[in-house]
Each structure stands twice: as C-alpha cells, then as structure tokens.
Amino acid sequence: MRCPYCGGSETQVKDSRPSEDGAAIRRRRVCPDCAGRFTTFERVQLREVVVLKRSGKRVPFDRDKLQRSIDVALRKRAVDPERIERLVSGITRQLESAGEPEVTSEAIGELVMAGLKGLDDVAYVRFASVYKNFREAKDFEDLLGTLSDGTPVPAAGPEADPEPEASGRRRAGRS
Predict the structure, then answer these.
(1) Whole-prediction pTM
(2) Which of 2, 4, 109, 169 is such that its CA lies 20 to 30 A from the CA of 40?
(3) Are 116 and 124 in contact (CB under 8 A)?
(4) Cα end-to-end distance, the chain, whole Å
(5) Do 162 and 156 form a contact (C-beta atoms < 8 A)?
(6) Tens digit of pLDDT for each residue in 17-38?
(7) Within 13 A of 27's CA, how many CA atoms are on the CB side?
(8) Are 85 and 21 in contact (CB under 8 A)?
C-alpha cells in the first residue's frame, strides 16, 4: 500500500480490526519513510458491477462515489455514522448480489432515495432535488407531499411527464 503523504511503497500495518458493521477490515498503517499514519479498509467484492449512465456511458461502480453522494445529502445532519455505513454497505451488497453485470444509474438513485427516506427526511429531499433535477418550487412541493402522505415520488426532469397532478396534494408542514 502506497503512503498517501510521501508515496512510499513500504507501509506497515500497525493495527487490524473489523469495522463497526463487520463488513470490512480496518487497518491502521504507518509509513517508515515519513512516519505518516493513515487508515485503509479491506472489503469483500462479490463481483464487478458496471453502471450504465443516462448518457449511455458505462463506468465501473465506485463505492466511494456512492458514499460521497450520501455524505453530501447528509451534510450537517445528526445521523450516526454507523447507520450511514450500513446504508452504503447495504446498497453495495444489493448491487453486487443482484446477479446483473450492469445496473442503471437510475436504479442506484432509487436505492439511495429509499435508504435516505428511512434515514433522514431532509437528506432525502436534498438528494431527490439533485437526482430528479428539480427546476421549480412545485417539484419540491410535490416531493414534500409524498413525505406526509406516503405516495410514491413522481419523476421530474426533462424525461418526465410535465402535467402536474392538481388533486390529492397537500403541503407538508413542519413537524
């Protein structure tokens, strides 16, 4: 493992232990060249998953990118880091064990939205606003209505049906 500080190739493992959720091995390492200390994680990867983007481009699934997206949605929210790690690990395991070599970015987005909805409503709305490409306040109103009445979230964005549903929606108040 290369040192992230000096680039030295001979780092030493000082401590190994299972991560909080037991899905990885956490290793503390030290570089003998610069004395820098850092942590690495070793995880089981069941299979290579390729993500099919909306543009048609195919890229390898990146767990770290998934983690960063969820972290951005949860920024400044009081959510236990163990719950976040369980969400990321759960989504990753679901994708790897599905048996499909390719998964659409939309399918990943739906899994993240479902996970965030059960974790934190504000993070759910933040993620949905970017994922569904909200363009006006009405999109937020519709999404907030789904939080209070439990109906599925309608698709928004350029490929969605532009006709709004006028009946049956109510604004979500603060709780």
Answers:
(1) 0.59
(2) 109
(3) yes
(4) 49
(5) no
(6) 887 667 678 899 999 999 999 9
(7) 13
(8) yes
